[in-house]
Amino acid sequence: MMVKIVTLFLIVMVVLAMFGAFRIKRGVRRCPACGRARIGPGPCGCGKGRR
């Protein structure tokens, strides 16, 4: 019984991780100059990718 619970928990965690990864990849904004992910409303750290 305990093995079934642990297995089910791990399967649910893997499914949630897959949906989370899909959601993060879809909404990432990238700097047009260097290609790094931009976090927040400001310019990129490289200084070239202005909004």
What is the molecular shape?
Answer: rod-shaped
Record the strand order, biggest sheet: 1-2
Instruction: Pick out the low-confidence regions.
Output: none
**Number of helix segments?**
1
Keywords:
single chain, 51 residues, mainly alpha, two-stranded antiparallel ribbon, 1 helix
Q: Could you walk me through the main structural features you see in this protein, from its secondary elements to its overall organization?
A:
The chain is mainly α. The protein has one helix spanning 2-26; strands spanning 29-30, 37-38. The chain has a two-stranded antiparallel sheet. The N and C termini lie far apart (56 Å).
Write the layout of secondary structure elements.
Layout: H1 2-26, E1 29-30, E2 37-38
Question: What is shown here, in short?
Answer:
Helix content is about 50%, strand content about 10%. With about 50 residues, the chain is mostly helical.
